[in-house]
Amino acid sequence: MRKKVLVTHQVPGERIHELAQHCEMNVWMGPGLLPASTLAEELVGCQGLLCLLTDRIDRTLLDSMPDLEFVSSMSVGVDHIDVAALTERGIAVGHTPGILVDTTADAAFALMLSAARRIVEADRYVRRGNWRAENAWSPEFFTGKDVSGATLGIVGLGAIGRAMASRAAGFGMRVLGWNRSPREVPGIESVSLDELLVASDFVSVHVALTGDTVNLLDADKISLMKTGAVLVNTARGGIVDEQALAQALGSGALYAAGIDVFAQEPVAMDNPLLALPNVVVAPHIGSATTLTRTQMADIAADNALAAIVGDPMPYCVNPEVQ
Ligand code: DGY
Description:
The protein is an alpha/beta fold. Helix content is 32%, strand content 15%. The strands form 2 sheets. The protein has a 7-stranded parallel sheet with strand order 8-7-6-9-10-11-12, sandwiched between helices. The structure holds (2R)-2,3-dihydroxypropanoic acid. The site of (2R)-2,3-dihydroxypropanoic acid has 7 residues, from loops.
């Protein structure tokens, strides 16, 4: 009998069509994202799930899904999935590492440059009609902070962190790096997290969100940052204490921030970061290019296809169950 697979959103790419030929596929057609209650209803009786990072897969959901055999997420991060609970049940979890490395590092660098050079603030200034003769070019007009030649601290030396370092080399930056399990990377000076925060003009976050990294940059760590530094986060919101960050940005202790990810997504409009002109925000678009999203969907479909035909998933988070 063909296995039943729920796909929680329409996804791009060709491989999803191949997957459809090997299973009984039910694709949520929207509108919008699949609500949690509908996920619980639609998943009943399914052997497979192809989901997005917006779908929460927890123990409560799993308890009512005895038929589930695999989960394939179209994301590299799996903090929306209780991997331990799935592993206990022998359910394989697939994800999409590698393919989004350069795209996400590009986005982090873009946020860093935008925050340092006040690009979004300047855009708003022009569009609001403020660029007039009495308010035009002058020596102090829209002055920002130099990126070239500055010191960049990279928190997390996985593939995206290292891709960030190679971009920084082109800007003549000194690069410091910290990783939970110390890692020597050519071109990156390995330091402690505190040393990195004290010495960096720019800090970019590239660790996964796990039990160990929740609130990694809390009020104490943020207070160590160099006066006038810039923080960039394209990893996960829960890694940085948003209230403490907003406080540091509002008081002038930090110069600016570029934030693509929030503890709660979509972000609440009363999040204090949104009220600050020196914060460039984006709606979790680090991997958002057409090519990368297509490749992520293809890998997610390949992981699901492998599970259906009984092969190991090419990219499995818990290979011990395969
Ligand atoms: C991921 O895949 O985890 C990224 O956050 C998507 O942008």
